[in-house]
Amino acid sequence: MSTLQTINFKDSKAAINKPEFYIPVVLDINAILKSWQLSIFSFEWINKDASIKDISALKEADQEKRKAIEAALTNNEPLEKPILGIGIQDNVEIGSGKAVICTLAAHGVKTIPAHIPKSNESDFKDLIADEAQK
Fold first, then answer.
1. Average pLDDT by consecutive 10-residue portion of the chain (134 residues)?
2. How far is CA 10 from CA 7, 40, 65, in A?
3. Structurally, what CATH architecture does the domain formed by 9-133 represent?
4. What is the DSSP string of 28-62?
5. Strands (DSSP E) found in the chain
6. Please, what sign has the CA dihedral across residues 132, 21, 78, 94?
7. C-alpha distance from residue 6 to each of 40, 45, 59, 77, 130 (Å)
8. pLDDT for the residue 89
9. Distance separating alpha carbons of residues 110 and 133, to the nearest angstrom
């Protein structure tokens, strides 16, 4: 499987349209999933222990999203960087890109570039990827 160095990413359209609002970061995928498991939306993609569901356990629409990301990886097409924020319960919420994060996690990728609101920068300090993992 690809490493972060061989996966192509492009900036999110939302982040491009509001550069004053978002900052780019590289995050630890396992830390994202551990925090996101508290979200009411996480059950669609991850198990209670924050592990990624098998593709056959996903809804049909989510299976298609995962297959599209896997095809993009195979064809070396750029993936859009996810946008993350902090939810009401002080956990990670994935505004866009959950299929990207979960597909890469399923393939053992450890880190991912993403966009977060500047106002949440301090909330993400424990999720920033260790330089050695990149």
1. 70 94 96 94 93 96 97 95 93 95 95 96 91 47
2. 10, 28, 17
3. Alpha-Beta Complex (3.90)
4. EHHHHHHHHTTSTTGGGTB-TTSPBPPGGGS-HHH
5. 9-10, 22-28, 79-80, 83-86, 92-96, 111-117
6. positive
7. 32, 24, 29, 11, 18
8. 86
9. 7
Q: What is the pTM of this model?
A: 0.91
Domain boundary assignment for the chain: 9-133
Q: Could you tell me the two tokens for 126?
A: 């424990």
pLDDT for res 131:
57
Query: Hey, what are 72's tokens?
Result: 């993009």
Residue owning tokens 């920068």: 121
The strand pairing partners of 23, in sequence order, are 116
The per-residue pLDDT for 6 is 83
Instruction: Show the tokens assigned to 12.
Output: 């999110």
Torsion, Cα of 99, 100, 103, 106 (10° steps): -120
